[in-house]
Each structure stands twice: as structure tokens, then as C-alpha cells.
Amino acid sequence: MKTWELLHEVDTQRKEIALTFDDGPCPIYTPQIVSLLAEVSGKGTFFMIGEEMEAHSDVVRSVVDAGHEIGNHTFSHPALTNLSVEQCRAELERTDALIHELTGRRPLVFRPPYMAYNEEVGNISLEAGYRAIGAVNGEARDWDQPGVGHIVEKSMETTRSGSILLFHDGWGDRSQTVEAVGVLLRAWSEQGYRFVTVSELLADR
Ligand SMILES: [Zn+2]
């Protein structure tokens, strides 16, 4: 694997997976996800949009206070592959600075909006010090609201130790996602999985 490529899973012996939540923070759905994670003593990674962070900075702080990781999901959610190098860097840097300002920490992980990604975007994110993160359960398409059963089934069948899972807690009606994540967390918990942040998963290899 080339260093700039998206990381979808980690090779690990530990029974750990990393749930990720894109497009927040959202005052309605983000706290519901945080509550579900608390019920299973799990941690998650929230790939936040800069514009939404400015609008809901209190939600950002509550996510960090609960022990979760914040990742960079750009400032205005463009397809980075359509931007110039300068515009792409600006999207990452502006969000990086905002995360630092609101949480006191620099983000370590990045996810490109729409998974629009190529070598150029990859190298920009590497230069900025990020690990670029994909996911194994793209077919779950939770952003399309395909039904709770579909999200659960497609996420279950692609998951094994070291998997990174994609869900959405912002930018639309995410009630199906919240319901599906509740079902999945209980099922995976019963199977013995632990829920860690992406950075923890990377550190545990
Ligand atoms: Zn997104």
C-alpha cells in the first residue's frame, strides 16, 4: 500500500474496530451517537466539517470531553479533487486551526469528502501530517437513508478485527444511522469487540 492511499482497515490481532462519524457536529444527532457509545464504554472518531464546528462549537467540546477523537473533514466539504493545490491546502489548514482552537489538540486523521481522493490530495494531506482514512462498509450507504436493516447488514458483513466503519451524524436526517448504530454496537459488543478511536486502532497494530 502506498503511504498516501486511504486506510480502510488495520491489521491487528486485537478484537477492536473504529467507528467513524462524518459531517457533524450536529446538535440533534451527535449527542445521540455519543450516548450510544457511552452505553458500551466505546470511543469513536468524528470527522467534522469546519463550518459546522463554527456553528456548534459547544457540541465539539462535548464530543472531546467524552473522550472521542476529532478528525479533519475539510472546512466547507468540497470534492478536493476539483480544487487547486492551494485551495485544497487551505481547506485542510483552516479546519486544522479551528480544531486546535476549540479542543487544544491538533487532529491526526483526515477523511476526504465524498471519498474524492487521488495522489495529489493524498500527498497534500501527508505533508500536513495526516493519515487519510477510508472505511470498509461503503456499501452500507447510511448517508442515503437506505433503511436501518440495510445499514446494519452491510456493516456487519464487512466487519472484522481492525475494520474502520463509516457513518454520518450530520448534514441531514440521520435517524436511520442512529438506530442502526445502536443495533450494531449491541451486536458487536456481544461478539466481544471493543470500540476504539482511529488513532488508537493505528497505535495497537
Ligand atoms: Zn462528508
From TrEMBL:
Keyword check for Hydrolase: yes
GO molecular-function term, one example from the UniProt record: hydrolase activity
Location of the NodB homology domain: 15-196
EC number: 3.-.-.-
Taxonomic superkingdom: Bacteria
InterPro entries: Glyco_hydro/deAcase_b/a-brl, NODB_dom, Polysacc_deacetylase_ArnD
Keyword Hydrolase carried by entry: yes
Any single Pfam family the record assigns to this protein: Polysacc_deac_1
Keywords: Hydrolase
PANTHER family documented for this protein: GLYCOSYL TRANSFERASE-RELATED
The protein's name: Polysaccharide deacetylase family protein
Species assigned in the record: Cohnella boryungensis
